[in-house]
Design brief:
The complex is a heterodimer of chains A (about 300) and B (about 350). With about 300 residues, chain A is α/β, with parallel strands linked by helices. Helices cover about 45% and strands about 15% of the residues of chain A. Chain A is built from eleven helices and eight strands. In chain A, the strands form two sheets. Chain A has a six-stranded parallel beta sheet with strand order 2-1-3-4-8-7, sandwiched between helices. In chain A, helix 7 (about 195-210) links the parallel strand 7 (about 185-190) and strand 8. The longest helix of chain A is centred in the C-terminal third of the chain and has 24 residues, at about 265-290. The mean pLDDT of chain A is about 95. With about 350 residues, chain B is α/β, with parallel strands linked by helices. Chain B is built from 13 helices and 14 strands. In chain B, helix 4 (about 85-95) runs parallel beside helix 5. The chains are: A alpha/beta (about 300), B alpha/beta (about 350).
Chain lengths: ~300, ~350
Amino acid sequence: MLLIRRFEEEAARAYAQGKIGGFLHLYIGQEAIAVGADAALHKDDYVFQTYRDHGTAIARGMTARAAMAELYGKDTGCSRGLGGSMHFFDVENNFLGGYGVVGGHVAVAAGAAFKAKYRKEDRVAVCFFGEGATNIGGFHEGASLAGLWKLPLVLICENNTYAMGTPFHRTSPSDTITSKAAGYGMAHDRFEGGDVEEVQTRIAAAAARAREGGGPTLIEIMTYRFRGHSMSDPGKYRSREELEERKKHDSVHLYRERLLKVGVAENEIKALEKSVEDEVMDAVQFAEQSEPAKTETMYNSIYAP
Amino acid sequence: MRRAKRASKNRNHVQQYLRPVVAMKTLRYREALREAMIEEMERDDSIVLMGEEVGHYQGAYKVTEGMLDKFGDTRIIDTPIAEAGFAGIGVGAAMTGLRPIIEFMTWNFAFVAFDQIVQNAAKIYQMSAGAIKVPIVFRGPNGAARQVSSQHSHACEPFYANVPGLWVCAPSTPADAKGLMKTAIRDNNPVVFLEGETLYGVKGEVPEEEVLIPFGKARIAREGSDLTIVTWGRPYYEVMQAADKLAEEGIECEVIDPRTLRPLDHESIVESVRKTNRCIVVHEHWPYAGPGAEIVDRVQREAFDDLDAPVLRVASLDLPMPYATNLENLVLPDVDRIIEAAHKVTYKA
């Protein structure tokens, strides 16, 4: 969680300095979900995410170096400078992409689950998306087919309350996302996402159900992003009071408190914090010193041999 | 009634342009497609076929007839009416090691799956810097049928031929349908396979032995010295009929069928134009932009000094397809309009 937090804070700085281009959608505030989910999954499970993908990719095992170099548009980046912030890919860790058109990737993730079922593999596909994505056709059709065919799929809605700048109550005809699950004949679960261990336990239950042939689960995890939708968004559609209130429930901070409470020494935590900061600074240095994206990569990755 | 007569006349003139070669058998276009899919599915169990009514109903156009009995419902998969959903599932399955064939009941319905085909299938290989392949075939009938009006009559090649990351096939004959389908299934990239909706019943000679037709290699359907006509898919048969009539007037047409629109065999087209010095492109898609315009652009750039006349196009009219049969006949490219264009470029008008 801390690595994701520090990584993104550094990415925001680099963006402000003009070293990173395009869009930059930060995950800050939602870290417990990516980390809890990864702890609940096997290494060979497939994971799909929207364009807010840094946290999930790092939780899956992508190095800070590969992630930062991608933001810098370098050849050493996880997508060799072709994907950028919104399209991280890490096949080795079965992280099958960040997708810019949200919802469509729900059907794609269902396809990975279809393959796992067809090959009788002990594997699930997990698809993350925001509450805003649940209004698009791709979400509906992917969920509908996954329910119909009992695919080993776990759908994780990170309900961070705002679809870009529009609050949930103005985009959704229902009070919860999970109320949609009945229409897809799938199990559902809904909870606050501040506790990383609770996230792990509850996603593990859904993954186990999927592995046992019980079909997909729609999980809605209530969360909050501390930054705007993207770097260009100051987030003026929400009050300072609301933001401050939510920051009191910062999972990174709360987990630190918890570690102290269970007897982890302060200096041990500080050593961890230092090593995370070093890792992020190393990633920045690596990204800055790496070779720019190569023209031959661009030409060679239009069609597969 | 007039429509029926025209259809039967059409079938007759269709047959005479499919010349037998050695070790051939006669198949209908739909049977050639089916045979290609069956042969490939027998060879490779990573191939699954998915779409509306492909299984129990035996295929809306009977292309998949009998395939459910042969392969069972784990490989021949009926889907609900959810093009975006099952196209996306195909993409995800392809990314993780299967080789899905996605049947759209018609390419007209694939517009709702456009996001999956263009934004996902075509781009994932590039976005992942070549780490993830998407070997998938999207197939189904393309273009106008008879009197099905505007929402069922799109000739879709411009939409897909525009997209780097996709291959686009548009076979005219049963032999090409089979050979290109086999290549499409084995290719490691997403392939948009446009079948002529009115060609399914067309019979033709198909080689007995296995033939994989390479992408980007045009077929010279007829040799001639006076005029090059480039065409593919359904209007191919109108072009061949027009070429016969023009021959009676002493105008010998060279007919080139590119077979795939991406990659497009510009070399064969330009080489032919250098010989004939004149060119017409005949296609069913709308005239505004698209492969037809692309071919004209290449010909004028690469064979400018060899041209004795401007390159002309005969396309569907620039409007949504009407229902009434008399109007529909006006919209689609026909023999008379092809002959008229040939007269113009040979200055015999």
